[in-house]
Amino acid sequence: MYNEQLSKPQYAGIGMTSDRTRRRLIDQVREMGVSNADVLNVMGSLPRHVFVDEALASRAYENTALPIGHGQTISQPYIVGLMTQTLLNKPRAKVLEIGTGCGYQTAILAPLCEKVVSVERIVKLHRQARDRLYDLGVRNVVFRHGDGFEGLSDFAPYDGILAAAVSEDVPQELLDQLAIGGRVVMPVGRGERQNLIVIDKTASGFVQREIEAVRFVPRLAGLS
Ligand code: SAH
Asked: Residue 145: CB within 6 Å of ligand 1?
């Protein structure tokens, strides 16, 4: 039987840099508007430097996006916090994440959900993130190499869907794979005109609202 207690990771500050550096980052994220205590706790216990190249490790506790190779970036901590708290306005057992990247957002979601399904189109990033999270003790994430915007019917329906790359529209597949009561959090737009949006699926239809202007790397088609 699926054992929730055993499968959710706990980081407890593994390999963390100084308390002060970590607290400063969490204070900034909180000041910008992330108030969910569970989200802040997980962010405060997860070492961010293990997600970036050694040459950038000294900048890992800055509240900025950083390059992770292949033209992609690790998301800004504030944005990760904002997206996570927006998605988890109520408990969401099964979450689909689109755009694993380095796995930082995945690692924040893992202790807060029962199961995370994370899809990445760049095979090297997919493998690196899978191995990195294994080393961090994460066992409740399914990693897939694929086009996440097509959804992943194997594990549908999802209680939550979160995308880390901007799309010009919300793919119908994602709405179809959402459970009733489920929520999508994703950036929508093009170029510099992007908004983080939230869509709730109710028994009588979809309710959509905008959260704030954001800046994400684009959704790309095909695998690499
Ligand atoms: N939260 C991640 C964000 C990485 S950037 C992190 O902090 O590391 C966005 C990611 O989305 C990139 O890794 C990019 O390769 C991926 N991506 C873009 N289009 C995609 C698609 N169609 N399917 C899956 N992943 C995609």
From this structure: no
Q: What gap in Å lies between CA 185 and CA 85, rounded to an integer?
A: 10
Integer Cα distance of 13 and 41 in angstroms: 10
Ligand 1 centroid distance, CA of 79 (Å): 14
Q: What is the pLDDT along the chain (224 residues), one digit of tens a residue?
A: 444 555 789 887 666 667 788 889 999 999 999 999 999 999 999 999 999 999 999 999 999 999 999 999 999 999 999 999 999 999 999 999 999 999 999 999 999 999 999 999 999 999 999 999 999 999 999 999 999 999 999 999 999 999 999 999 999 999 999 999 999 999 999 989 999 999 999 999 999 999 999 999 999 999 99
CB-CB neighbours of 164 under 10 Å: 28
Residue nearest to atom 13 of ligand 1 (CA): 101
Of the candidates 111, 8, 100, which has an alpha carbon nearest to the alpha carbon of residue 51? 100
For CA atoms 14, 81, 77, 165, give the dihedral sign: positive
The Å distance, Cα 86 to ligand 1 centre, comes to 19
Q: Considering only CA atoms, which of 93, 101, 41 is closest in space to residue 68?
A: 101
- Domain ranges within the chain, ordered by starting residue: 19-213
Q: 153 catalytic, yes or no?
A: no
Does domain 19-213 sit in CATH 3.40.50.150?
yes
